[in-house]
Write a structure and sequence with these properties.
alpha/beta; seven-stranded parallel sheet; 21 helices; binds nicotinamide-adenine-dinucleotide
């Protein structure tokens, strides 16, 4: 630890990482200390000179008594004083959270700030002047709703204007409950070192931050522009700062990236620190000359989603890929049949979904060439008919390899990538009404689809907190090529052809096109619906399966 003095206040400064690397300065919020950055710093310190400090009034830094000492201009002076001390010759990259971000905006919007600040990553803390202008916008009903919603989220700001009581509450009951509050509401496990032992007094002193700044800034806003490149990270489950606060920032910040992180106000740092570190690294690398990553360029403009569809050379897969493309999405298609995939359009790849190594390679290629997908449709599947006892072990393996393992591989390779990226997404698994309707002659097929339904339910429960939706599509009888390739147990080639022709005719008579399934898939992604039966018979079957499984079992016995 070293001490930097700013306006007579001694600030406790902590450094790690290579001294000759670019400096990243982390500014914490309220009621925190530099320890809130532990996870972020641990990752960044591999490549950067990471500096954190306890802001005035917190942790091991001095505690000025006078409320005026907590005004934004002094906090901004502190930031520049630390930057000058730790990186006198090179501008620093600032990453700031909550109140740390509010005070960093003050520094970043000072005239000439770009000479000392190379970039600013702001998490959950707006520029108060920008907020004041945002609130004064033309009062459309929609805008007023957003302002009201933000004010409701900021109830505590009003509460902190009440004299004495907030300090008293912090020093008595609140501090003890804080770790409990964080783990319950923010879903972060209790951890050593956080909150800091000085929490009770930090929280009490920090109330001055609110009292010294909110009223003057909101009632007399100043025009605050900046040339510093700014990345705003918006935690989607933030209880205090709504994404509306990042609206219209282009007016003040010409070089702006706005990105979402599926996390809460504190869990963004305490659970997803690695994601924040990655976002910061992407920006710093890009400003240093590296090409913009896909997620960074998405954060700058409204880039259409990247969609991956497996088994997209025919039927439901092809219709789904083309429906997404028609909405402007960038589409990656794969199929075991390369020519068929190419004929669908989009970026075409030849992949056998049942081959784990091939799926890993496919995912690597997709990430390298196009980025982490936003939507993945695990659709590839094959038909097989045969009663349980007639189905050979080989046939069981073939059906499960494609219909079940193909989906598992897709969910594994792309699900991991989506979870690591932290920006959410959607996985669609194409099962079948056979997943919940037992059919004697579809033993292996129904089993594979029932497993897909269950794995999707388990996966959804696991990844929903990361903003990743999972939908299972249960189509019913759809007119596609599946009947021409379906295999049958215990019959010779000629009999198989006859059965295929019969099934094809029956499905044609049913006349329910794959475009209708594709439309339901797009809808499921938009609404996040979990289980989607498509045809009327699939819908009726699901109702029956839920109401009276015994009836279904009796019916299938006598079928
Ligand atoms: N058609 C229906 O009535 C119906 C009903 C319920 C569920 N489904 C399911 O919908 C999905 C799509 O079927 P469809 O009807 O469009 O059939 P389809 O035969 O028209 O298309 C399936 C595509 O998947 C590809 N494929 C097969 N094995 C593959 C593998 N190992 N790796 C990569 N690609 C592979 C095929 O080459 C084909 O292009 C399947 O999972 C199927 O089980 C279809």
């Amino acid at each position: 630890m070293r001490t930097v003095v700013s306006g007579g206040v001694r600030l406790a400064v902590f450094e790690e990482g290579p001294l000759d690397a670019p400096t990243v300065l982390l500014v914490h919020g309220y009621p925190d200390t530099h320890t809130v950055w532990d996870d972020v710093a641990a990752v960044l310190a591999d490549r950067f000179h990471v500096v954190r400090y306890d802001v005035r009034g917190a942790g091991q830094s001095d505690v000025p008594r006078d409320q005026a000492a907590y005004r934004l201009e002094h906090l901004s002076d502190d930031l520049f004083a630390v930057a000058d001390a730790v990186s006198p010759n090179q501008p620093v990259h600032i990453v700031a959270h909550d109140w740390g971000s509010i005070q960093s905006w003050e520094a970043v919007t000072e005239p000439g700030a770009h000479e000392r600040i190379a970039s600013f990553t702001s998490i959950s803390g707006p520029c108060l002047d920008h907020v004041a202008y945002w609130m004064r916008r033309r009062p459309t009903p929609r805008h007023l709703r957003k302002v009201l919603s933000q004010q409701l989220h900021s109830w505590y700001i009003m509460a902190f204007q009440v004299p004495v009581l907030p300090e008293l509450l912090w020093r008595t009951v609140l501090t003890k409950r804080w770790p409990l509050f964080l783990s319950a509401l923010e879903n972060v496990p209790p951890r050593a070192g956080h909150p800091a032992p000085t929490m009770a007094s930090d929280a009490a002193h920090g109330v001055s931050l609110y009292r010294a700044n909110f009223r003057p800034r909101l009632s007399h806003p100043r025009e605050r522009h900046t040339q510093v490149p700014v990345q705003v990270i918006m935690p989607t489950a933030d209880r205090y700062a709504t994404p509306a606060l990042a609206e219209g920032l282009e007016r003040w910040v010409p070089r702006l990236w706005r990105r979402r992180l599926h996390a809460g106000h504190w869990s963004a740092l305490l659970r997803d620190g690695a994601q924040v570190a990655r976002m910061v690294t992407e920006l710093i690398d890009h400003l240093g000359g590296a090409p913009e990553t896909r997620s960074l360029s998405r954060a700058r403009t409204e880039t259409p989603p990247l969609v991956v569809v497996t088994g997209a050379g025919s039927g439901i897969g092809r219709a789904t890929a083309q429906a997404f493309a028609a909405t402007g999405a960038e589409v990656v298609v794969c199929d075991i049949d390369e020519e068929a995939a190419k004929a669908t359009g989009g970026h075409a790849y030849q992949v056998d979904v049942s081959d784990e190594a091939a799926m890993r390679k496919f995912a690597d290629e997709v990430v390298a060439r196009h980025g982490v997908p936003d939507i993945v449709v695990n659709n590839a599947g094959i038909g097989h008919a045969g009663s349980f006892l007639a189905t050979t072990t080989e046939e069981w393996h073939r059906v499960l390899d494609v219909n079940l393992w193909g989906v598992i591989h897709g969910c594994q390779v792309f699900g991991r990538l989506m979870a690591e990226r932290g920006e959410g997404g959607h996985i669609v698994n194409v099962a079948s009404a056979a997943a919940y309707l037992p059919v004697k002659s579809l033993a292996a097929y129904s089993t594979s689809k029932a497993a897909v339904l269950m794995l999707s339910d388990c996966l959804r429960a696991e990844v929903s907190a990361r903003g990743i939706g999972v939908s299972t599509i249960c189509p019913g009888l759809i007119t596609t090529n599946i009947t021409r390739t379906t295999t049958f147990s215990g019959v010779d080639a000629a009999e198989q052809e006859r059965k295929r022709a019969g099934a094809t005719k029956a499905y044609q008579r049913r006349n329910f096109g794959p475009e209708k399934v594709a439309a339901q898939i797009l809808r499921a992604v938009a609404t996040g619906k979990a289980t989607v039966p498509v045809t009327p018979e699939a819908k009726a079957g699901l109702v029956l399966a839920r109401l009276s499984p015994a009836t279904l079992r009796a019916a299938v016995r006598h079928s």
